[in-house]
Specification:
The protein is mainly beta and 151 residues long. Helix content is 6%, strand content 44%. It has a single domain (7-112), classed as Beta Barrel (OB fold (Dihydrolipoamide Acetyltransferase, E2P)).
Protein backbone atom coordinates (compact mmCIF):
# COMPACT_ATOMS: atom_id res chain seq x y z
CA UNK A 1 0.00 0.00 0.00
CA UNK A 2 1.35 3.43 -0.93
CA UNK A 3 1.74 6.15 1.67
CA UNK A 4 0.50 9.73 1.63
CA UNK A 5 2.79 12.72 2.10
CA UNK A 6 0.64 15.86 1.94
CA UNK A 7 0.87 19.14 3.80
CA UNK A 8 -1.64 22.00 3.79
CA UNK A 9 -0.68 25.28 5.46
CA UNK A 10 -2.08 28.79 5.70
CA UNK A 11 0.21 31.39 7.16
CA UNK A 12 2.24 34.55 6.75
CA UNK A 13 5.73 34.95 5.34
CA UNK A 14 8.38 35.90 7.88
CA UNK A 15 10.67 37.48 5.26
CA UNK A 16 10.87 38.25 1.55
CA UNK A 17 11.58 35.16 -0.59
CA UNK A 18 15.23 34.22 -1.06
CA UNK A 19 15.59 33.35 -4.74
CA UNK A 20 18.56 31.60 -6.34
CA UNK A 21 19.11 31.17 -10.06
CA UNK A 22 20.94 27.92 -10.71
CA UNK A 23 22.50 26.34 -13.80
CA UNK A 24 20.31 26.44 -16.88
CA UNK A 25 16.82 27.77 -16.28
CA UNK A 26 16.53 26.32 -12.78
CA UNK A 27 15.36 28.71 -10.10
CA UNK A 28 14.51 28.01 -6.45
CA UNK A 29 12.84 30.22 -3.84
CA UNK A 30 13.11 29.62 -0.12
CA UNK A 31 10.43 31.03 2.15
CA UNK A 32 9.81 31.04 5.87
CA UNK A 33 6.12 30.62 6.75
CA UNK A 34 4.58 31.20 10.18
CA UNK A 35 1.39 29.42 11.20
CA UNK A 36 -0.20 30.49 14.47
CA UNK A 37 -2.63 28.46 16.53
CA UNK A 38 -4.64 30.16 19.27
CA UNK A 39 -6.40 28.45 22.14
CA UNK A 40 -7.38 28.98 25.77
CA UNK A 41 -5.48 27.20 28.50
CA UNK A 42 -7.08 25.67 31.59
CA UNK A 43 -7.04 29.06 33.33
CA UNK A 44 -8.93 30.65 30.47
CA UNK A 45 -5.94 32.64 29.22
CA UNK A 46 -5.51 33.01 25.48
CA UNK A 47 -2.35 31.27 24.27
CA UNK A 48 -0.83 31.66 20.81
CA UNK A 49 1.64 29.13 19.50
CA UNK A 50 3.57 29.86 16.30
CA UNK A 51 5.29 27.23 14.18
CA UNK A 52 7.81 28.16 11.49
CA UNK A 53 8.01 26.17 8.27
CA UNK A 54 10.78 26.26 5.65
CA UNK A 55 9.23 26.23 2.17
CA UNK A 56 10.92 25.45 -1.13
CA UNK A 57 9.46 26.47 -4.50
CA UNK A 58 10.94 25.60 -7.90
CA UNK A 59 10.61 26.87 -11.46
CA UNK A 60 7.74 29.17 -12.37
CA UNK A 61 6.39 29.12 -8.80
CA UNK A 62 9.71 30.51 -7.57
CA UNK A 63 9.52 33.31 -10.15
CA UNK A 64 5.95 34.17 -9.12
CA UNK A 65 7.00 34.18 -5.46
CA UNK A 66 9.94 36.49 -6.22
CA UNK A 67 7.72 38.92 -8.09
CA UNK A 68 4.62 39.04 -5.88
CA UNK A 69 5.33 37.72 -2.37
CA UNK A 70 6.73 39.92 0.38
CA UNK A 71 7.26 39.67 4.11
CA UNK A 72 3.84 39.43 5.76
CA UNK A 73 2.04 38.03 2.68
CA UNK A 74 -0.58 35.46 3.58
CA UNK A 75 -0.57 32.30 1.45
CA UNK A 76 -2.28 28.93 1.24
CA UNK A 77 0.21 26.14 0.49
CA UNK A 78 -0.11 22.52 -0.57
CA UNK A 79 3.04 20.42 -0.66
CA UNK A 80 4.95 17.51 0.77
CA UNK A 81 7.52 17.00 3.50
CA UNK A 82 11.12 16.57 2.40
CA UNK A 83 14.13 16.00 4.64
CA UNK A 84 17.89 16.30 4.23
CA UNK A 85 20.39 14.43 6.40
CA UNK A 86 24.10 15.20 6.65
CA UNK A 87 27.05 15.20 9.01
CA UNK A 88 28.38 18.62 10.02
CA UNK A 89 32.04 19.63 10.53
CA UNK A 90 31.93 18.46 14.17
CA UNK A 91 30.74 14.99 13.13
CA UNK A 92 27.17 15.57 14.39
CA UNK A 93 24.34 14.06 12.39
CA UNK A 94 22.00 16.84 11.25
CA UNK A 95 18.55 16.81 9.71
CA UNK A 96 16.54 19.60 8.10
CA UNK A 97 12.88 19.29 7.26
CA UNK A 98 11.25 21.51 4.64
CA UNK A 99 8.03 21.68 2.68
CA UNK A 100 8.33 21.22 -1.07
CA UNK A 101 5.51 23.41 -2.39
CA UNK A 102 3.42 21.82 -5.13
CA UNK A 103 0.92 24.68 -5.36
CA UNK A 104 0.14 27.88 -3.53
CA UNK A 105 -2.49 30.61 -3.55
CA UNK A 106 -1.96 34.19 -2.48
CA UNK A 107 -4.55 35.28 0.08
CA UNK A 108 -5.55 38.64 1.48
CA UNK A 109 -5.24 41.94 -0.31
CA UNK A 110 -2.71 42.83 -2.95
CA UNK A 111 0.63 43.94 -1.53
CA UNK A 112 1.50 47.60 -2.03
CA UNK A 113 3.09 48.29 -5.37
CA UNK A 114 1.58 45.25 -7.06
CA UNK A 115 0.25 45.54 -10.55
CA UNK A 116 -3.50 45.31 -11.26
CA UNK A 117 -2.89 42.17 -13.33
CA UNK A 118 -1.02 40.39 -10.50
CA UNK A 119 -2.15 36.76 -10.43
CA UNK A 120 -3.94 35.75 -7.27
CA UNK A 121 -3.22 32.07 -7.75
CA UNK A 122 -0.96 29.74 -9.61
CA UNK A 123 -2.95 26.74 -8.50
CA UNK A 124 -4.40 25.01 -11.57
CA UNK A 125 -7.13 23.50 -9.41
CA UNK A 126 -8.43 26.84 -8.11
CA UNK A 127 -12.16 27.23 -8.39
CA UNK A 128 -13.89 30.18 -10.04
CA UNK A 129 -15.63 32.58 -7.70
CA UNK A 130 -19.37 32.07 -7.34
CA UNK A 131 -21.76 34.17 -9.37
CA UNK A 132 -23.14 37.22 -7.55
CA UNK A 133 -26.50 36.84 -5.86
CA UNK A 134 -29.43 38.51 -7.61
CA UNK A 135 -30.48 41.82 -6.13
CA UNK A 136 -33.92 43.19 -5.25
CA UNK A 137 -36.25 42.74 -8.24
CA UNK A 138 -34.11 39.96 -9.72
CA UNK A 139 -34.99 37.51 -6.93
CA UNK A 140 -36.70 34.36 -8.02
CA UNK A 141 -40.04 33.73 -6.36
CA UNK A 142 -41.38 30.21 -6.18
CA UNK A 143 -44.96 30.14 -5.01
CA UNK A 144 -47.12 27.43 -6.47
CA UNK A 145 -49.55 27.75 -3.59
CA UNK A 146 -50.03 24.08 -2.80
CA UNK A 147 -46.98 23.00 -0.82
CA UNK A 148 -47.71 20.89 2.22
CA UNK A 149 -44.57 21.78 4.16
CA UNK A 150 -45.17 22.26 7.89
CA UNK A 151 -42.75 25.20 8.16
Amino acid sequence: MAGVNKVILIGNLGADPEVKYLEGDNVVANLSLATTEAYKDRSGNRVEQTEWHDLELWGQQAKVAEQYLKKGSQIYVEGKIKSDKWTDEQGQNRKKIRIRVLSFTMLGGKPEGSFPSAPQSNNPQSKPSPAPMPSGSDKMVMDDGDDDLPF
